[in-house]
Design goal:
single chain; 365 residues; alpha/beta; Rossmann fold; Dihydrodipicolinate Reductase, domain 2; seven-stranded mixed β-sheet; six-stranded mixed β-sheet; 16 helices; 38% helix; binds NADPH dihydro-nicotinamide-adenine-dinucleotide phosphate; binds the ligand N[C@@H](CC=O)C(=O)O; oxidoreductase; Homoserine dehydrogenase
């Protein structure tokens, strides 16, 4: 049996609990040897040697993390998990750097890590290297983070396969943000009628944005993804040395809360409308694009113009598109599809859990 403990049952973590609970209750799939044994958010926690019942998972907010649950204490949470015996995975569904910095400690205690949180892989290179070293041995604890780039799309697994089979990465280029894809697909298209701030509002309500949408609009979410791709491809990319275009209006960069930012964004609709009409007048649309250049080992994150017949201009909804140009794929290998939202992200995490089950031969006893 593979024990699973979820840190941060918010939008994505909540969807993961739903998918796992549905799986446990399904006669078709219920034999998957996964047991949820721990939940922790910033206030409460619960760890159990016996798996939580599927019926409790259906109402976890009151039945598991309700009044009877203990106060959140991450050190105690990890202690209890490390003592469980069976292979145990900590699934970090926060966006916290503090939590990400705990991975080396968890790995050193034999706990596996699965996460959609980009921080550990895109911050200090030394943290990334430490994690890689601890997770590098064939039968030791492992780290999977497919959902950090492209949410549920098979982006990192594809890149890993290219690298491990000895292909040479020449360029990785794409639209890596579901939020910015949705924004520009809907705002920057011939005949579009929604204002920029209305599009941001829909992206937020649809669960595409980071908890604070400025983390998408300032380019940092894409910069983190470009850094992760570059590092997995073998380049020493650092987020602080990337060339990143921040499109948050200057005056809104320091406002205190995401709510205040959202309420003041309409003041800048004319500015974005102007950028858009200039692009349309030149027969192009605006798209926010990230790139890793294999020749220089450098990355960039920019608002660019693309002609209407370019594949990036034809993107729909919150789709991501990632084009890998390599020695073997001079005509690029393309991964495309829904690239944000809680359901697809939870799917990416779930598929990583299945990989750990397979790798460590967890059985259903
Ligand atoms: N939305 C998407 O499409 C995608 C999201 N991701 C990533 O998924 C992650 C989760 O996103 P999302 O679900 O939207 O975030 P939410 O803000 O909805 O949820 C975050 C959760 O983390 C908990 N949390 C925060 N800090 C701590 C802490 N120090 N200790 C314990 N718990 C903590 C929060 O607890 P509390 O409620 O108590 O504050 C909350 O339960 C992020 O890293 C995001 O970048 C990745 C790919 C796609
Ligand atoms: N905010 C991100 C969520 C996934 O990483 C995005 O819009 O892509």
């Amino acid at each position: 049996m593979l024990n699973v403990a979820i840190v941060g049952p918010g939008l994505v973590g909540g969807a993961l609990i739903e998918q796992l609970a549905a799986h446990l209750q399904s006669p078709r799939f219920g034999s998957l040897p996964i047991a949820i044994v721990g939940l922790i958010n910033s206030k409460k926690m619960a760890v159990s040697a016996a798996p939580f019942a599927a019926s409790d998972l259906g109402d976890w907010k009151s039945r598991i993390l309700g009044d009877a649950a203990g106060s959140a204490d991450m050190a105690q949470f990890a202690d209890s998990l490390a003592k469980l015996g069976a292979p145990t995975v900590v699934v970090d569904c926060t966006s916290s750097s503090t939590v990400a910095e705990l991975y080396p400690e968890w790995l050193a205690r034999g706990l596996h890590v699965v996460t959609p949180n980009k921080k550990a892989f895109s911050s200090d290179l030394s943290l990334f290297r430490k994690i890689q070293a601890l997770a590098g041995s064939p039968r030791g604890p492992s780290v999977y983070h497919e959902a950090t780039v492209g949410a549920g799309l098979p982006v990192l697994s594809t890149l890993n396969d290219l690298v491990r089979t000895g292909d040479r990465i020449e360029k990785i280029e794409g639209i890596f943000s579901g939020t910015l894809s949705y924004l520009f697909n809907n705002f920057s298209a011939p005949g579009a009628t929604q204002t920029f701030s209305e599009c941001v509002g829909v992206a937020k309500a649809s669960g595409y944005t980071e908890p604070d949408p400025r983390d998408d609009l300032n380019g940092m979410d894409v910069a983190r993804k470009v850094t992760i791709l570059g590092r997995v491809a073998g380049f020493e990319l650092g987020i602080d040395t990337l060339d990143v275009e921040n499109i948050v209006p200057e005056a809104l960069r320091s406002v205190a809360s995401a709510d205040e930012f959202m309420s003041r964004l309409p003041e800048y609709d004319d500015h974005f409308a102007q950028l858009n009409s200039e692009a349309l007048a030149s027969g192009s649309v605006l798209r926010y694009v990230g790139c890793v250049d294999g020749a220089s080992g450098q990355g960039s994150v920019k608002l660019m113009r693309y002609p209407l017949d370019h594949p990036f201009a034809a993107l729909k909804g919150s789709d991501n598109i990632i084009a890998f140009t390599t020695a073997r794929f001079p005509s690029p290998l393309i991964v495309q599809g829904s690239g944000a939202g809680s359901a697809v992200t939870a799917f990416g995490i779930f598929s990583d859990l299945i990989k750990i089950c397979e790798r460590f031969g967890a059985d259903s006893k």
